[in-house]
Specification:
The chain is mostly beta strands and 188 residues long. The protein has helices at 3-18, 66-73, and strands at residues 29-33, 41-45, 47-50, 56-62, 76-83, 89-105, 111-128, 145-150, 153-156. The longest helix has 16 residues, at 3-18. This is Pyridoxal 5'-phosphate synthase.
Amino acid sequence: MDAPADALVRTLRQLIIALPGKTGFGATAVLTNSCGGGAPRGRLQQVLDIAEDFSQVKLVTWDQTRKVKELAVNPNVTLFWTNPIGDMGWVSATGKASLEAVQLVDKAGQPYGGLNIVVAVERLEALNYEPSIMADANGEGWIPQVITRESGTWRVVELQEYGYDPEIASPVRTEQGVPPGASSTTPS
């Protein structure tokens, strides 16, 4: 068990649930998937549930949508939430989607075929300012925190792909007009 990763998972889930949204569960998510040969497609989806351990996210759709056919061919997806509050932030969840048939009822009371899209989450990335969720230890906020799920356990990932060294300042400076690596102090 990775205690820092588990604490981060709980924080991310609570952050999403608290976002303003229409569903009563929290904010809707943008579901992005590959449509086979073309550019990926993004759609706003109603989130039904996020597992306590964030191992899966459940969404709902009509069984006749394009995404149903696309997910049958390629189940790899990304879910994306934005935090519009304060200094803002975002959470991204990637994984594989499976489809579960459900019977839905429209506003007129007529039944129709629906599907739950169940995403088995394999990777979470987040950059948020309040609460502070970021990988750069100096808090400048340019490096997202990443955790992956392997064999049922979440693990914090070191972000070598960014070339990030937590012992030095963020490679992107937050002071206006000061290029990365330059000092903001003027010589005497």
